[in-house]
Amino acid sequence: DAVRPDPGKDQAVRLWYLATITYLLEIGEFANADPQIARARLLFPDDPDILFEHGYYHEGFASPHIQTAALESGADMRGAKIHLDEAEDLYRRAVKGNPEFVEARVHRGFVLSLLGQHRNAAEELRLAASTAAGPQLRYYAELFLGHAEESLGNRGAAREHYAQAAAL
Question: Which pTM value belongs to this model?
């Protein structure tokens, strides 16, 4: 924040926030990631990578083990659906800012499926699967697409996507 004249215009500051947020989320330090994300969002409000990390925070916060701890401790009384809705919005904005952001598409598709929006999830995951550059992202896109298709009652399509994921 001491970078002059404006930390919000410095690429090194952006990368520092991305690195620290990613690290904190990876080790499960959601409480410490929260103020980092808040400050990064003030400095870089429309940055697709910052939006993605913020979405990942909410996606993680919606998980059962974090929800249990947050609700029992009183640290955050918002339910999983509120966090999933927020994650979906942030991932959508990240994809809007960078349409080639396949990882954000995969996460958005997964979250849409968790929200019961299987048709929208399938659309997003089809795009992700068709553009995923590496086997890891393609694997998750195919796996989650299989789930979305299964939830829509498309058993044959689901089986194909599960088979493609298994092959990866």
Answer: 0.93
